Amino acid sequence: MSYFDAASAAPLHPVARQALLASLDEGWADPARLYREGRRARMLLDAAREAAAEAVGCRPDELVFTPSGTRAVHEGVAGALAGRRRTGRHLIVSAVEHSSVLHAAEVHEAGGGTVTQVAVDRTGAVDPAAYAGALRADTALACLQSANHEVGTEQPVAEVAEACRAAGVPLLVDAAQSLGWGPVAGGWSLLAASAHKWGGPSGVGLLAVRKGVRFAPQGPADERESGRAPGFENIPAIVAAAASLRAVRAEAAQEAARLRELTDRIRARVPAVVPDVEVVGHPARRLPGIVTFSCLYVDGETLLHELDRAGFSVSSGSSCTSSTLTPSHVLKAMGVLSEGNVRVSLPPGTRAEDVERFLEVLPEAVAGVREKLGAPAPAARSRQEDAIVVDAVGRRCPVPVIELAKVIGDVPVGGTVRVLADDEAARLDIPAWCEMRGQEYVGEEPADRGTAYVVRRVS
Amino acid sequence: MSYFDAASAAPLHPVARQALLASLDEGWADPARLYREGRRARMLLDAAREAAAEAVGCRPDELVFTPSGTRAVHEGVAGALAGRRRTGRHLIVSAVEHSSVLHAAEVHEAGGGTVTQVAVDRTGAVDPAAYAGALRADTALACLQSANHEVGTEQPVAEVAEACRAAGVPLLVDAAQSLGWGPVAGGWSLLAASAHKWGGPSGVGLLAVRKGVRFAPQGPADERESGRAPGFENIPAIVAAAASLRAVRAEAAQEAARLRELTDRIRARVPAVVPDVEVVGHPARRLPGIVTFSCLYVDGETLLHELDRAGFSVSSGSSCTSSTLTPSHVLKAMGVLSEGNVRVSLPPGTRAEDVERFLEVLPEAVAGVREKLGAPAPAARSRQEDAIVVDAVGRRCPVPVIELAKVIGDVPVGGTVRVLADDEAARLDIPAWCEMRGQEYVGEEPADRGTAYVVRRVS
């Protein structure tokens, strides 16, 4: 088995395992107690906080441990918004933030706050000027990830931090994907991260809040973790998280170069060995281990199953693989194809031969899925006025695009075809197909059944 | 070293350690993913949920794992209150709940809700009739611990649950101290618990919400744990928690009998070997492993240090040992002495000879502390009208009581003595001393400096 989904969760680093085992016997007691076992637990906790703070680039008393990266984000966003409530209730996020940030923003909006989502370009990056333009007099908090979790694109954090600083607005950086590779550059005010993304154990997040940032923790508190993260500290896991962060940092430069070479290989070779593929994300300003591509006429879930059977664990932002049946908000915001989407995220230590094997297996897996889907019950097709109509109502992605591709040859150049569909993914995938195929996407219209997506044949 | 503070945190049970190690290699992946590692993690999580639900006495889909018992309480209280917001915003708690419950109640009150605290008797138990009397038409939620964490007294949960059921009010039971010993009897609606109290790892709480209970999770959610506990699941720790719960339950009946015999011994022998001691908590309806007593004229922190030096780790509800410098709200609500307070909570497996050694060491440790404190700079004493006045302003507990004890012999029977003090603990300890000594506590009066506590000599 080759596990290529490190962006979801990395396998436990050997140093994390060692540190966890060692501190199970030393770190189980209550660090608030005065007796020997408590003092020992307190020493372990203090040492872990110092090590983590050094890796983050902050003071130990600016950093608390939370039960997960998600909770670090939730508590960081809520605390910073409440701390600056007098300034206003405006929150800025990028359109491609992790769902934990977007969920926190939804709660803020439901509570009467306002939220601006800053758009991204086709590579998934925000434009620092556009981000700066969203800052207002009543902006309480701005959020920006250090790098995107689905496509690996790095965000211009330092520039955005500078604009926020000039406007007097704190910037919260979700560093979940990048902290193992290095500290976040620039003048951030709050930072959140998650240990299991760098090979630490589950159950540990970090929240750093710089001195001077107004911060009012929300919800019931207790005396633990400076009143910012209630509940008994999970010290063995915290020790393992800090130790493994230090360990992966020591290997980071070398491993980054190695993984970048491997993902460059995938970026270059996939379009050569698989027809009708779009590689997404920024080609250069990106995390070393992540590469994402989408395959036309492919159902993401079936492709994942095929790859799993072939021994590869990857993930997908396609609608068919998520419980909500909507395509990834990241791919949507980038305006790229979401169907047949595959994210490959290599854990440190990935061997070149496993990547080569993946590149061997992939074309066959894609072809197999396409073959299965190539013979669906043909969608009803009828002439209506001068336009060909494809009726794909009730059919799930990628069928609407497959049916569109089948008829485009019958459309006279300059003529249009109307695709009727009610799968939400079609709204994203039909324009993306047009862009890839050099056809013109005219737009969508309401229809008696579903929505009509109008495409003009250009060539 | 003898660790006698299991009620804070129990050392890791060998079964928890084994299960944790085994699942570090199998349970690190994202259980929401479709590939092999994800499916394996999902299977572990499902099996742990089934085992935990069986031990709790609920359906697996009624139970979610949270990052701690504290978070289980916070999220349980907030979700149940929000789910019944239309009924009203009245919350009932007992006066001796764990601070996590009281903190959740404070937040509710700060948000405009109302809270009734049901008083307890001198043993720490609520009266079911008094609890039932607090139920109102606008009561959204009632909370009651299964047993008290400081004195071990068991609460009449089944009777209170029946009253709540009759009134149509859900009852949340904080079962943190008792779940390792057995399921909570009676018709509770929500239940919270904490794995590290039964020998499971840190980082795992349980929240059970019975089907049919209106529940609206608060704060940002995600798709994990039925939307009730956001953030990546800590599966190795969850597996260890469930496995160790099953293991301690298998040993519970036998171990409960053994520990009860040991705590009975402490209850009986401490007053015999240490003068001026009050053993608190219910003598019979109590947890097997907890026994708590308070020593007159003793500073809790110094006594804990002495016992730690002698090799015993215990905790204290005395004001001097907490960061807030106020005595335990539990001892306060019970109206018992808080000074020189010691809680002994025996972990399963405690050996009888260690208890015997504790009983040997204790009298000397107490005597040593008393000797040190017995020669404080004498407080100014003056006659004012017909009353003796002891000026202990600026002196910390237990000095005010020590000074009171020194002068009571000088007071004519029927006469009064006024103790001037500004330590908050005096408000609790002077009446408690009167009760123990058969003197009459007349009451308190404002004074130029501090508060005047008036005591009448009866005998």
Descriptive report:
- 2 copies of one chain form a homodimer.
- Chain A has 459 residues and is an alpha/beta fold.
- Helices cover 38% and strands 18% of the residues of chain A.
- A 7-stranded mixed β-sheet of chain A has the order 2-8-7-6-5-3-4, sandwiched between helices. Chain A has a 5-stranded mixed β-sheet with strand order 13-14-15-17-16, with helices on one face. A 3-stranded antiparallel β-sheet of chain A has the order 9-10-12.
- In chain A, a hairpin with a 2-residue loop joins strand 13 (381-384) and strand 14.
- In chain A, helix 8 (300-309) packs across helix 10 (352-374).
- Residues 375-385 of chain A have low confidence and may be disordered.
- The interface between A and B is large, with 67 and 67 residues.
- Chains A, B: Keywords: Coiled coil, Iron, Iron-sulfur, Metal-binding, Pyridoxal phosphate, Transferase.
- Chains A, B: InterPro entries: Aminotrans_V_dom, Cysteine_dSase, PyrdxlP-dep_Trfase, PyrdxlP-dep_Trfase_major, PyrdxlP-dep_Trfase_small, TusA-like, TusA-like_sf.
- Chains A, B: Residues 390-414 form the UPF0033 domain.
- Chains A, B: It catalyses: (sulfur carrier)-H + L-cysteine = (sulfur carrier)-SH + L-alanine.
Under CATH, the topology of the largest domain in chain A can be stated as Aspartate Aminotransferase, domain 2
Helix content of chain A: 25-40%
Largest beta sheet: strand ordering of chain A: 2-8-7-6-5-3-4
Average pLDDT level of chain A: 93
What is the CATH C-level name of the largest domain in chain A?
Alpha Beta
Sequence stretches where pLDDT stays below 50 over 5 or more residues of chain A? 375-385
Distance between the termini of chain A: 44 Å
Structural class of chain A comes to alpha/beta
Secondary-structure element pattern of chain A, one letter each: EHHEHEHEHEHEEEHEEHEHEHEEHEHEE
User: Which chains make the largest contact?
Assistant: A-B, 67 and 67 residues
Radius of gyration of chain A: 24 Å
Name the CATH superfamily classification of the largest domain in chain A. Answer: Type I PLP-dependent aspartate aminotransferase-like (Major domain)
